[in-house]
Design a protein that fits this description.
Elements: E1 8-12, E2 21-25, E3 28-34, H1 38-45, E4 58-66, E5 69-79, E6 82-88, H2 92-105, E7 109-112, E8 117-122, H3 126-133, E9 137-142, E10 147-153, E11 156-160, E12 169-173, H4 175-187, E13 191-192
Parallel strand pairs: 1-9, 2-13
Antiparallel strand pairs: 2-8, 3-6, 3-7, 4-5, 4-10, 5-6, 8-12, 10-11, 11-12
Length: about 200
């Protein structure tokens, strides 16, 4: 007899409630940082202690000092060798430049994921829809605004996020994959918005 391990997913205690909506999020850049020195190098840049991220999928809203400016971004942990960053487009070049400096002296690779897109989802039925559509089990309650959680589900990277503009969930995938999900969500009664306003 085979025991199936539940695929857990998380939600913030105070996720958005209201109309079921989704929108494309075109205001952020996704950066993958990999390599044997990924964790120690990130720790030199980031003000938060990323050593506490030890469970795959856990994430943190954190800051780093780049060019004498504090910039905020979301950092997700896969393993000690692999992290994913979400950052606003306007500050992404500075962060990529700061990260790339480490490629010369450390065993890291910095890859800007221009092939990925973000679809935000929120509303009264958003969490249960994500659970049902991706065969996930509720099991993680995120109590702090800085906490994040993510899970890879097939071709889609799912996040539970808590941004000022959007307290809900995100699907990250290539454009053709997200187009399928947009159609699916419309069929489930979600309305498409140009953007998700607070």
């Amino acid at each position: 007899m085979t025991t199936q391990v539940p695929q857990l997913f998380g939600s913030h205690q105070n996720a958005y409630t209201g109309a079921n909506e989704f929108a494309q999020m075109n205001d952020r850049t996704i950066i993958d940082v990999t390599g044997s020195a990924a964790l120690p190098y990130l720790q030199t840049l980031i003000s938060s202690d990323v050593r506490h991220l030890t469970v795959p999928g856990m994430g943190l809203r954190c800051t780093a000092k780049v060019n004498d400016h504090e910039i905020a971004f979301e950092l997700y942990y896969f393993t000690e060798l692999a992290f994913r960053i979400f950052v606003d487009n306007d500050i992404a070049p500075a962060l990529v430049a700061a990260l790339s400096e480490g490629e010369e002296s450390h065993d890291i690779d910095v890859i800007t994921r221009g092939d990925l897109r973000i679809l935000a989802l929120r509303g009264d039925d958003a969490f249960k829809t994500v659970l049902a559509e991706f065969s996930l089990t509720p099991g993680i309650i995120l109590t702090g605004e800085q906490q994040r959680y993510a899970r890879q589900a097939g071709n889609v990277f799912l996040t539970a996020t808590h941004l000022e503009s959007h307290k809900g969930y995100e699907l990250v995938a290539k454009a053709d994959e997200l187009a399928k999900w947009q159609s699916r969500f419309i069929g489930l009664g979600f309305s498409e918005q140009a953007e998700l306003l607070v």
